[in-house]
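Progress against Task 2.4 (sequence-to-structure conversion) is shown through the following example record, which the project officer requested during the mid-term review.
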Amino acid sequence: MRRVLGTLGMVVLVVGGACRRPAPPALEDAPRLEVSGCAEVVRPSKTDVPACVPHATEPIRVVVPAGNGAVSFALDDGALDAGTGRAVERGDVYTVTVPHPGRQISVRSADGAVIGVVPLHAPTRPAFFAAAASLRQSGDLAGALALVEPHLSAKDPSERAAALGLVARIALRRGQIDEAVARLREAIVLDDEAGHVSDRVDDALALAFVLHQRSRRYSEARAVLEEVAPLVTDYPDGHARLPLYRAQLAWQTGDSRGALREAREAVSRADRLGAGSIARPARSLVGMIACGAGSSRACLETLRAAAERATADPSTPACERAEVWVSLGIAEIEAAEVEARAAEELGEADRRALALLEKACPDTYLRGLAHQHLAIVAVLRKDAATARRELASARSVAVEPRLSDAVARLEVEGNASRLEGHVAEALEELSAAVTLAKGAALHTKAAHALVARGRAQLAAHRERDALASFLEAEAEVDHVVAAIPLGEGRAAAAREGTESVRLAAALLVKAGRAPEALALVTHAKGRFLASLLTRAPSRTPEEARAHESRIAEYHAARARLDVEAAEDWKLPADELARRARARADELARLSALFDDASAGRGASLASSPVLRPHELRIVLARIGDTRLPVAFSELDGVVRTFAVRDVSRGTSAEDLGDAVLRPLRGELARATRVRFETDASLVGVDLAQASIDGVPLGASLPTVSGVVLPPRVGGAPPAGAPTLVVGNPTGDLPSAREEGRLVTAALGEGRGASFLEGRAATASAVRDALGGAGLFHYAGHGIFRGVEGAESRLPLAEGSALTLTDVLALPRAPRTVVLSGCEAGREVGVGDDAVAGLAHAFLVAGADEVLAPTEVVDDVAAASLSRALYEGGNKATRTDSVLGIDLGEGLFRARRDALAQGKPLWRAFRVFVR
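Structure tokens generated for the chain above:
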């Protein structure tokens, strides 16, 4: 992520090395430090520097750049107690109470050198301001307005600007949008004239909020934010707030990817300043965007934590608490719909919000949202009368809803009409919701409305039209998944956006169209991994050049990080920790850069894999409203489907075999290999462990886990491509070292095998060799980490690693990959954040087959499997393999022999294939 600092927050660069430290700057020339929590930031004249006006009763927060050790504070010439700093990104933040007026705060290092200063200024706001603002915050809008109105005609522009800003905010609370906009525009002009830096920024941000949140004037709001952006460099709190408002605008205009990035940037900037009043709404917004993107669990966790913090902190304003409860209300609704929970549990959060809004926060917009949510709850309870009553209340207090809320209201109307049996009206209202959502590129809302329309069509016995609506919803879900950054809820959106595919597949199966149902299920289950594709044939030349430029930038920056990591051993512990944090931030930035370069550019999703002759494909998926699993089987072009009793990761091998394999005994007798796949709700079910008569399928037939992806772009490694073997790169796994040597000996003869062992296996060396390799065997640690596995990696020498993004960025992946490292092939399903590991990344990058463990394994067990796989009679041949190694056949033979000898069957390992 970006980490841009304002003028008030200029960073002192401390350059290490053998050079003599330069002479410290004079006090008047010292850089200005970041400061947060000022009552005002002012610049009385164009020649003055921006200065902080401290609150009379509240401390300010000063950020001291990292690397300065112990520091001391002074107010003018007198010592100032700042206590102990708290470590933040690239520095330490100190809480400072300013006991009396002064010219500036200075900060010095232990040797007396000036690190930086905070210029101070006397208060400039008129006397009425504090009392009027307090009345507004407490909900006494009439009392606040009575105090402010006499000052609207004041001659002093500073006084008039303060009055206009307060009147605008009172009008906003009352729902008087046009007056709020006009007053804020007047105030902004006067703020400029008076040199009120913070008021100028805050009034502009408030104007942008009114324009896009309350009156749908998105282009005007965007122009206001662009105009104010250069001004926040003088105002660190404004610098932290700006991405929050950008995130709100991006979210309302359908850009979930940009919204999440900006909201997280706001959290990062606010945390650096210790500005909880900014970080709290930013975190809530992250949760709300996750709700809108489909990640209901992440949304609930974020907003429940926010509600707890807001309730526990007595300083949290009533309106902020009410907003959190309203946000939690919709989060609980979204989660209930995804998880099919009882609607009777819903509504409490919005009722708590309404109680606050009645007593202490007269915000008409929030009140309208709370009633709107209660209308949705009534629909889920099938109570049309209450739904219409709550919707009328929402409309009476909030007449200018956001686009997303306008769609939601139309959907409530349509669902209420459906519940009342007025199908024609329901279809008209729901079609209007679809049109509005699609026109605004609100893909999540459009998908939701399309499913609602499909259900109404089912109620009218119009199954063909319902199927068309559900399929149209599927296309909207494709857009939703592609729009969310990796590691920010993309997999959850893919996992939770399954209502349309479940309903459509059930209709197709009912109509006897099993092949089409299977193709649809395949399309949906492949959405997440297909979104990771980076090379697409559909790019224009300009898009291709831009993509290549970003990829080149990524590779160059990764190489710089590798060089830096190699020097870590020279650093003291505190500097090493700081360097590690900085490197993690840079890796996150690079991953985001890479993700943006490939965003939405993957090839079309595949609807079926290319099967071998007599290969039996088995797909488990939940379809229909009952959500019970069905099995699809495909053998030699014939597809059939049958119901199975509910299964899960915890189902025993015998029960899994009885449920899925026994109905397929005829197909199994003719099959030469079994390829199994599951939808997201059944990930973790391993059919290789299912048994008939005590014999696991994986020891009866070659059994592989299928990953459906579009055809490879860019071609496979040529015949005779060399082998790359990496063994014990971190130096702490003796069995991994022996495994690497064993594999090299088994494969090295005449095949150009390259063995990187220990300190030779740096990230740069491995990345350089991978692009031309036909087979890659890694023996070492494997780490599965981060939301959606986005931070997964294979640790390498000198503290470096091969990351998931490194794999996706490969110009060409080896065709055959063996990852003998813990959890390298891990998959997780419902209730978990991550869904794919490094094995899947290699397949996305172009590999044909990957063998990897799905859970933690020790290096001795991994080495023993490699020995069984490569040595003696277990080396299977295949004419289309780069090196004659068929991993599925090899793992089958190893398991068959182990079963005969009474040994463990390497249950943790799977072969994943395209």
